Each structure stands twice: as C-alpha cells, then as structure tokens.
C-alpha cells in the first residue's frame, strides 16, 4: 500500500500539519525548525502498528513533553492526532487510519506519563462509499471480520494499547492485518552509530539479508547478499566509487559470519576493515546498504542523512535516494540545501521548506 497523505496535530511543534506524499517527500530546513518532529510523527504511526506507541512517547518524556505546548481551544482536551491515507496499488482501494492519544484521567489504571488511546479509526473506500473496518472509543473496539460482519472485539483494550496492533495480531481481521504489515515494513534511519562498537562495524551472522535493519547491524550480510545471492553490485559499486574517491568494496564469501572491507586506489593491495574506516565512510556505506539492498521496504525515511558526510559525497547520496525511489517511497528531512537540491535535480521533486513561526512548525511547498 502506498502512502498518499499524512497529517499530525498536537505533537510537539506540529500544531496542525497536512502533507501530501509522493514517491519522494523532501523537506529542508534549519536546525530547530521541527524537521525531526515531522520524521518522528510519521515514525509513531509505525509504532502504532507495532504496539509500541505508548512506550515510544514515554521515552520522549511522556505526554507532558510530547503534546503541543501552545494555545488550545477552550474545553477541548489536548490530543496528539495522527492520520494517514493509503492507496492499494493493485485494487485502487483507499485506506484511512486515524488515532488520537491524550493524557490519562486523574484516576485511571494507567501511569501518569503514558498516553491513553482515546479513539482509533480505520476505513477503506473502493469508490462507492467508505466502510469502517475498525472503530474504537476508549477500551471498546468494533471491527469487521473476514466475512464483513461488524463485531465487537472480544478483548477490551488497555488504554495504553493500540487497537491496530492488537486486532492485526489476532488473525480475525485480514484487511487490518494487511495494513499493519505494510506499516511494520517501513524503515526509519536516523543516523548510524559509528563508534568502535557500533553495529555497522561488526561482522554479521551469515544469513541472507535482503533489507538493512534500522540499526544497520546486518550491513555486512546485506552486502554479501547483494554480491553472492543476487550477484549484482553494479549500483553499489558505482555509488561507492563516486563518493569515496574511486574506492571499491571487498565482499568475501561468508563463512559463519559476513564481513567486508574497502580498497582505496592509493593502496590497491590493502583491504581496510570497518574498524579502520572513518565515521563518514561508514555512514555512507550504511546508507548504501539501506538504499540499495536486495529488497526495499514500502517506505524508507531518512533523518538528516548528510550528517558526518563530506560535501563531495552528497551527489552520490542523492543518486542512491533517486535509485531507491524507483522501488519504494522515500521520505527525507535534511538541513542541507545542497543535498536537497541534488535530490531535486535527480528526482524532479521540489523540496518543501520547513519553518518555525511562533513555536509552530510550518511547511511551505
């Protein structure tokens, strides 16, 4: 399913944002404008599908930190509202998912900093009229089963649980399960650790790895899969050579573990191991693994991927993003105008500008 639009309100600096999404969604702005809040709000939709939304918000400091801190309408309780719209590319059916989270009441079975899910709705529209697949108010949830009957889900939700995740895992509601699987497949890459013990510098267990994990821990196995299972590293080789001064990857056939090294033109007989490479080199290689892997997720989101990269690497990074966009949707937030321009040149997408006005994030197309 393809994401067609996304809206968020009441979340941090996002008082009210609506965005239409294409194959590439590109946002550029200065530090502090709220770009990361856009990225994070979309990530919370995936957390809803995974059943981890309450924990994610709690780790941000709880609802007191996550809620919009500006003025609220009188007598209207503050809420975080996330809404996404999708289109099934095979059937053209349109799906809509909406969730509202708020503070726990003063006396409740929950904890004071965790969010409570107040409402959830999932509907689909085949062009005739919208059909409710799921509706929730508080702990009670109604949904349509595999035969189209609207029934009350037999298990009442805890306020901290998302119905989307719970119903998808029950096996009773196939459409909900399909959407949930799509959301769980999204990948969010917010930088990669590059310290000596970082996952991307370590050997990987030698199993076929068609897609990069979000922490990059299977990077060596992703490269080995491209080289020895798919047998095609043309795009990878070209981008590495372009970004790293003519360097090439050395990807030996794995034993119990998979590894890789880098050969540079100055020392053609020497293979530099990951622990010897610079932070910028390792981050670029991890981005290459994310964007050029054997199989891509439905959506890849990148938050400031230019971090630690030399400006000379940005055209190659833009090329990898454009290549990935041929196979999946890509969402990029960056403060680098040079990267945004390079992506725009290679994809034809005009970057949207992210601004901060009176504490509120604004997106100008």
UniProtKB/TrEMBL annotation:
Gene3D superfamilies: P-loop containing nucleotide triphosphate hydrolases
GO BP, one annotated term: double-strand break repair
Entry-linked SUPFAM superfamilies: P-loop containing nucleoside triphosphate hydrolases
InterPro entries: ATPase_AAA_core, P-loop_NTPase, RecF-like
Domain ATPase AAA-type core: 271-341
A single MF term (Gene Ontology): ATP binding
Superkingdom in the source lineage: Bacteria
Protein name as annotated: ATPase
Organism expressing this protein natively: Phyllobacterium phragmitis
